[in-house]
């Protein structure tokens, strides 16, 4: 059985991908519960930041991007034109992102800033923050949350948005150069990009896409996305089995352990072990996604993963600002998860779902675009004839 066989067997959209998206979103929220509070005792750090638990944090975003690459590649083949493909990406990302930025800047910001309203609304940082809707991201809202352990930061997670846009831009370019017709384009592009990132003044340098802590940098996330695309493009060639899934999980643990032991938590061996375990986690993503456990009711009626990702940072900062003495990391995690889930539900119900239900407009635009292309192609053929 191949990945393609398994995908077809599960009707084209197994529930594993839905579970992965929501779990990865919650894990991002969980990690930031530590980062925003900065008050957790050392013994609590061992719960999540010491081996073997520290295997999880570095794999969250790479798996997120690989999962996105696999699913978006499916959309790429279902769309007859680049116009519809890019339109779907815009409809999925921008409405919810724009709403979150506007609500944060205009409604919440005035209540959590130390500036007067006049100073706040005329501060250059305020206008820079609004540019988040264009992909020019900044995490800082001027003079907000000044009493928090992490002041001024409103959306710590938004640093990944530009790299997500780079992923879609790269895929659009590969479509234009014939990737949908000649799939060999995708592995060639992947190898060239990986080589470009590794090559630094005549030496191999993995630091451009993996940090000393073992976490992927932005360019590395783009590679993870393209790896997910590759798994979909070659789904008819890549074998699928439970044994492979278990082997990949074991490999992640083993190489991370080797990095810890040989590198003592740092240095070249640690980074190499982290890099291999990161690569294996990206390979593991489609195998986990193709699992098909029964969907719970919440997954059948809503996709809350994007809303949780978008809103959790500002929710955590607000909770810490309002109840500073009560917000240890665990309390921050639990309360922010509840509040963010509720907000994500409203985001899905009032913004994301209604926009996605307008996809028929893209079909009309695509049909007109294809007609225009056909007419111009006919004119060119007549002129040549």
Briefly summarize what is shown.
With 385 residues, the protein is mostly helical.
Keywords for this entry:
two-stranded antiparallel sheet
Element order: H for helix, E for strand: HHHHHHHHHEEHHHHHHH
Shape: globular
Average pLDDT, rounded to a whole number, is 85
Distance between the termini: 49 Å
Q: Evaluate the radius of gyration.
A: 22 Å
Supply the number of helical segments. Answer: 16
Can you count the beta strands? 2
Largest sheet: 2 strands, antiparallel
Poorly predicted ranges:
none
**Strand arrangement, largest sheet?**
1-2
Structural class estimated from helices and strands: mainly alpha
Beta-strand proportion = under 5%
Helix content estimate = over 70%
Structure explained in plain terms:
The chain is mostly helical and 385 residues long. 71% of the residues lie in helices and 1% in strands. The chain is built from 16 helices and two strands. It has a two-stranded antiparallel sheet. α5 runs antiparallel to α16, α9 packs antiparallel against α10 and α11 packs antiparallel against α12. The mean pLDDT is 85.
Write the SSE topology:
Layout: H1 3-9, H2 15-37, H3 42-49, H4 56-78, H5 82-112, H6 117-122, H7 124-130, H8 161-176, H9 185-198, E1 199-200, E2 203-204, H10 218-233, H11 242-263, H12 267-289, H13 297-301, H14 305-322, H15 329-356, H16 359-384
Antiparallel strand pairs: 1-2
Helix pairs in contact: 2-4, 2-14, 2-15, 4-10, 4-12, 5-8, 5-14, 5-15, 5-16, 8-10, 9-10, 10-12, 11-12, 14-15
């Amino acid at each position: 059985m191949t990945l393609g066989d398994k995908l077809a067997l599960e009707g084209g959209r197994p529930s594993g991908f839905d579970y992965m998206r929501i779990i990865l979103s919650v894990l991002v929220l969980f990690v930031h519960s530590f980062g925003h509070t900065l008050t957790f005792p050392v013994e609590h750090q061992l719960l999540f930041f010491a081996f073997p638990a520290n295997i999880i944090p570095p794999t969250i975003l790479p798996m997120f991007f690989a999962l996105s690459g696999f699913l978006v590649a499916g959309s790429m083949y279902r769309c007859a034109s680049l116009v519809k493909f890019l339109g779907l990406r815009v409809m999925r990302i921008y409405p919810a992102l724009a709403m979150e930025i506007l609500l944060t800047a205009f409604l919440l910001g005035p209540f959590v800033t130390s500036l007067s309203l006049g100073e706040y609304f005329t501060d250059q940082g305020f206008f820079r923050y609004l540019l988040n809707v264009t992909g020019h991201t900044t995490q800082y809202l001027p003079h907000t949350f000044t009493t928090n352990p992490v002041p001024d930061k409103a959306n710590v997670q938004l640093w990944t948005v530009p790299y997500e846009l780079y992923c879609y831009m790269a895929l659009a370019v590969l479509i234009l150069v014939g990737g949908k017709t000649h799939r060999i384009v995708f592995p060639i592009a992947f190898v060239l990009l990986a080589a470009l990132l590794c090559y630094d003044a005549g030496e191999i340098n993995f630091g451009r896409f993996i940090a000393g802590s073992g976490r992927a940098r932005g360019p590395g996330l783009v590679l993870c996305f393209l790896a997910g695309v590759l798994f979909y493009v070659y789904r008819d060639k890549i074998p699928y089995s439970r044994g492979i899934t278990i082997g990949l999980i074991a490999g992640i643990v083993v190489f991370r352990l080797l990095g810890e032991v040989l590198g003592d938590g740092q240095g070249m061996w640690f980074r190499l072990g982290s890099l291999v375990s990161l690569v294996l986690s990206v390979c593991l993503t489609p195998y986990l996604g193709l699992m098909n456990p029964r969907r719970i009711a919440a997954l059948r009626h809503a996709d809350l993963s994007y809303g949780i990702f978008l809103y959790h940072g500002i929710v955590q900062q607000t909770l810490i600002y309002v109840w500073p003495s009560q917000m240890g990391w665990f309390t921050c995690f639990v309360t922010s998860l509840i509040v963010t889930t509720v907000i994500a539900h409203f985001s899905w119900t009032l913004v994301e779902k209604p926009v996605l239900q307008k996809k028929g407009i893209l079909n009309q635009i695509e049909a007109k675009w294809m007609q225009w292309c056909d007419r111009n192609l006919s004119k060119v053929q007549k002129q040549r004839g």
